[in-house]
Amino acid sequence: MGLFRKSKKEKAKGSGNAEPGETSGPQYGLRRGAVAGAGEAQPAAGGASTASGLPRSDADGGEHPVSAAAGGTTIDQVSQSVIDGFAYGVPYLRLNTSILVACHSEASLSSSLFSEEASMVYSAACYHDVHDVAARDSLDPHVFELVADAYAHMRRLRQDQAVVLSGVSGSGKSETAKLVCDQLCVLASNGGRHSTRAQYQMAYLGAIVEAFASAATAESMGATRVGLWQEVQFNERGRISGAKLAAFGLDRWRVTAPLRAGEANFNVFAYLLHGSSSSERQQWQLRHGDAQAFAYLAQPQHQRAGADPAHAAQMMDQLRTALKVCGVGSRQQAHVLQVLAAILHLGNVRFGDAPDRSEDAAVVRSPEEVDVCAQLLGVSSAALTAALSYKTALVGGDLCTVFLNAHGAHAQRDALARALYHVLFYWLVDQVNRNTSDAEAANHIAVLQ
After folding, report:
1. Which parts of the sequence are annotated with region: Disordered (predicted)?
2. 311 falls in which pLDDT band (50, 70, 90)?
3. Is residue 174 part of an annotated ligand binding site?
4. Is the pLDDT confidence value at 149 over 80?
């Protein structure tokens, strides 16, 4: 995975024409296609260096196993440095002052490299005590160092900054984004993590995204299925004053696509089944934890694993808290969950072709599911049936009603389910932004993933 830092001024510089071999600003040559985030990289002049996360040390007094290769300036040398570093438990390789290559494992993400102690060490050496050059030079490259540089540039130059996370699915972009935001909280509050209301809200944004935009895939148990631009907003004093999300490219096809081995629908559906109260389940006609009862959640017989019920229920409680903190009240939450339940019931609506009415619309084979879904959506059963059985098309400049057969009605049903989830998700993002964003922020640091 690649981490880039750019200011708006640097972007403008980099857009100019340059002669071959010359630079018109920072060079960003990291290429996509990495395996676990350790892909090929074209470094800028000046080579690269390795990172372990805390001050360099070698108990045996020997050379760091990847330090010799880290000075290479070719793709093969840099790639080999990343591979060697990963084998040694070293997650970072610096290409220049603005670019890091991160190669994480589950062990490295849970190690002391990202402890509170490490956070404070980098905060002090890279921002608060900048005149202590020796202290900074004693540290290996780290995402905390990159964040401190971005924050320092924003504070001193009054320029907005951006941290760009690039990598394949499962390479650790979401976890790194959390580290970036946590370290910004530390820098903005002189060591405290959630000392303001805005920081408190920002800490819960991740829970909302994880619920509505993350799902298990073959590559990752918690892959984020949407592009995110998250702004951490600051006032004139450099304190966090707000946060804003911009989402794009939601994988809405996941709502209705048949699940393959190791995959699951968006996390929020499991939260809904396992974390709803008995009265909510009765109202929405959900059976506790029975994912196989719904077509959009059902998995093939040979691969049924299912969500951990206790964990899903706990995450539902956390989601309710996160929504409340970010300005979505209990009544709005109930409406959101009700729409999710309607989507599940919509997936169970079945149609058939009537042989004696071959030129007519498809016939509903599960009227009880139509009734439940219509009630949850606040429309009549007849209106919902018509919306699924007929389609308006422009033919020769005229609007015509097209009768759908069973196959067409099923496609129309799935399209409606995807549209409902898509609109619900972006409405939720907008609602959260209304309560967390600071329209008068002096500057921001954005995280793109």
Report:
1. 1-69
2. very high
3. yes
4. yes
Nearest C-alpha neighbor of 342 from the set 278, 276, 410, 283: 283
Specify which of 76-85, 137-146, 187-196 reaches the highest per-range mean pLDDT.
137-146
pLDDT of residue 410: 97
437 in a known ligand binding site: no
Residue 365 placed within a domain: no
Is residue 327 within 8 Å of residue 435, measured between CB atoms? yes
Q: What angle do CA 143, 23, 152 make, to 5 degrees?
A: 35
Alpha-carbon distance 42 to 28, whole Å?
8
Please, are residues 104 and 175 in contact by the beta-carbon 8 Å criterion?
A: yes
pLDDT given at position 301: 57
Residue 363's Cβ-side half-sphere holds a number of Cα atoms within 13 Å equal to: 10
Q: What is the CATH number for 38?
A: 3.40.850.10
Q: Considering the domain boundaries, does residue 231 fall inside one?
A: yes
CB 449 within 8 A of CB 173: yes
Scanning 124-220, the segments in alpha helix (DSSP H) are 133-137, 143-157, 173-188, 197-213
What domain range is 111 assigned to? 2-13+26-253+439-448
Query: Is 173 among the annotated ligand-binding positions?
Result: yes
The larger pLDDT score, comparing residue 79 to residue 190, is at: 79
| 47 carries a ligand binding annotation | no
Does the pTM surpass 0.90? The reply is: no
Q: How far from 208 is each of 76, 273, 316, CA to CA, in Å?
A: 40, 17, 10
Report whether 249 belongs to an annotated binding site: no
CB count in 10 Å sphere of residue 274: 22
- Look at residue 108 in the predicted model and tell me its pLDDT: 66
Q: Is 436 exposed, middle or buried (0-12, 13-18, 19+ CB in 10 A)?
A: buried
Q: Tokens representing 261?
A: 């081995």
Residue 395 domain flag: no
Q: Would the annotation count 169 as a binding residue?
A: yes
pLDDT digits (tens, 9 = 90+) for 28-64: 223 222 222 222 233 232 333 333 334 444 434 444 4
Report how many domains make up the chain: 1
| 178 annotated to a ligand binding site | no
Tell whether 357 is covered by a domain.
no
